[in-house]
Amino acid sequence: MTASGFQRARSPRAKRQREAAILEAARALGAQRGIREITLTDIAAAVGMHKSALLRYFETREQIFLGLTAEGWRDWSADLCERLRTTPADRAPEAVAEAFATTLTARPLFCDLLAQAPLNLERNVSVESVRAFKLVTLEEVERIGAHLDRLLGLTEEQAVDTIATATGMAGALWQMATPGPHIQELYRSDPRLAHAVVQVGPRLCRVLTALLRGFTDR
After folding, report:
1. What's the pLDDT at 183?
2. SS3 track for the chain
3. How far apart are CA 80 and CA 104, in angstroms?
4. Structure confidence by residue, pLDDT tens digits, 110-134
5. What whole-number distance in Å separates Cα of residue 189 and Cα of residue 82?
6. Contact indicator for 201, 105 with CB cutoff of 8 Å
7. Does residue 4 carry a pLDDT above 50?
8. Which residues of 128-141 are buried (b: 16+ CB within 10 A; e: fewer)?
């Protein structure tokens, strides 16, 4: 659909369909180019509407990506909890750390969103948008925390610390592991900078294993 051919959604169902199309366009663009590079104009063009028309559905680009972050939390939590249900108790710290690292690194867009949410996405939206997002994350944290209690006997505080460490590091490490093409070439060309090449999954797994062993050894 071209911008000139865009027609405003006039029914609740049509509005939901249009919002879903906007979210899908933002998801595809973010996966291709990174969240920081995507503007509201880019998203509007991908859907086939003018930016002013898109603002009838979402207040800012940040609200769009914050919505995708909430979706990402639900999707990741469901996958992680399913893996934790079958985690063997005799190697729980290592297996739990591996489950966190594997499910997070399988979702590069979510890792990007995790880094951008506190830095940018929560800062240019309404209070109600932030509230809705936080309630989604709270629900998923409680869901994951129940498994951490069952497997490792973690307290609520320890479970929250584990999840915050996992998601915070996943976001930060993903940014470090995906520099621009010129920086990537620099790392490859100078052996002294080899340490700057980050392997997200293995590092995340090592840190989480150490954290969980510390909690359980106490």
Report:
1. 79
2. CCHHHCCCCCCHHHHHHHHHHHHHHHHHHHHHHCHHHCCHHHHHHHHCCCHHHHCCCCCCHHHHHHHHHHHHHHHHHHHHHHHHHCCCHHHHHHHHHHHHHHHHHCCHHHHHHHHHHHHCHHHCCCHHHHHHHHHHHHHHHHHHHHHHHHHHCCCHHHHHHHHHHHHHHHHHHHHHHCCCHHHHHHHHHCHHHHHHCCCHHHHHHHHHHHHHHHHHHC
3. 9
4. 999 999 999 999 998 999 999 999 9
5. 42
6. yes
7. no
8. ebbeebeebbeebb
Q: What are phi and psi of 107, to 5 degrees?
A: -125, 75
Q: What is the pLDDT of residues 140-194, one digit of tens each?
A: 999 999 999 999 999 999 999 999 999 999 999 999 888 777 877 887 788 888 7
CA atoms within a 13 Å half-sphere pointing along the CA-CB vector of 125: 23
Which sign does the torsion angle of CA 144, 27, 66, 48 carry? Answer: negative
pTM of the model: 0.88
Handedness of CA 73, 76, 82, 84 (dihedral sign): negative
Residue with token string 């603002």: 55
Identify whether the C-beta of residue 156 lies closer than 8 Å to the C-beta of residue 93: no
Q: What CA–CA distance (Å, rounded) separates 97 from 73?
A: 18
Q: Please give the residue that has the higher pLDDT: either 89 or 5.
A: 89
Place of tokens 């209690």: 149
By C-alpha distance, which of 89, 102, 61 is closest to 153? 89
